[in-house]
Amino acid sequence: MKKFKLLLLIICIFIIFVLSGKEIWKTYQFAFTSDGSHITLLTYREYRSIREFYPAYKEKEKIVVPKSVIGRPVTSLKWTFSGYYQLTSVELPDTITSLEDYAFSQCDFLTQIDLPSNLGLIGEFTFSGCRSLETLTIPSGVSMIGKYAFGDCSNLKEIFLPEYLEVINEGTFIHCTSLEEIHIPAGTTAIRDFAFQGCTNLKTIYIPASATEIGEDVFKDVLQLTIMTSPGSKAEEYAKQHKIHYEIKK
């Protein structure tokens, strides 16, 4: 009986494919979530055959990510556009709740992306190497940003972090050399190793008293930094220990 139901499901999916006329499976490789109710887009197929030969010279492209595939909502991206050099702009549907590992890594020309309000998670290396991205607002519902999520975003000048972000993970902003100022949200409890290493133009960082854990080499090679913090905070102690200039917020 179970085999029959599975066969019936496969047949139904095939019929939907044929009747839809959208041929979405030719554009994206995708996978079902564990309960089969949602879709994760894994690979954007259209550029795979040309990126090896024309990595930076093809006409730049804007993409609208589909809201659903075969009747199921698209809720996450993982590795989907990694290395897609021609991508300049992305429109994401409001069904997206997670941008998982490497979703947009090494998209050298990506300049425009508005993150959906329902987003809750940004994975590891999600935007790493997006060297044309200059500004980004992360929605308030995001509580987790993975390791090296924005590493080597060398033109990132401005980023607005969500108020419920709990941790600045390992290497999150490593080598973001255009970043000059950043406010750590009031509820953040930890800033992990290498988080701002190599951010050579970072001048000011606001660290709340809630941040009771600050890792190793967080500000390595950041030579003109001022830490703004509260009296008696871990950040004040860290600044004294590492001979970093600091000021107490009034």
Strand content: 25-35%
Oligomer: single chain
Instruction: Give the full name of the CATH homologous superfamily.
Output: Ribonuclease Inhibitor
- Overall average pLDDT: 85
| Proportion of helical residues | 10-25%
| Poorly predicted segments | 13-26, 47-57
Q: Main β-sheet, in a few words?
A: 7 strands, mixed
Class inferred from helices and paired strands: alpha/beta
Radius of gyration: 21 Å
Q: Kindly identify the CATH topology.
A: Leucine-rich repeat, LRR (right-handed beta-alpha superhelix)
CATH-scheme architecture: Alpha-Beta Horseshoe
In N-to-C order, the SSE pattern is HHEEEEEEEEEEEEEEEEEEHE
The total of helices stands at 3
Estimate the global geometry from the Cα principal axes: elongated
CATH class: Alpha Beta
Number of E-state strands = 19
Counting structural domains, the number is 1
The separation of the N and C termini measures 70 Å
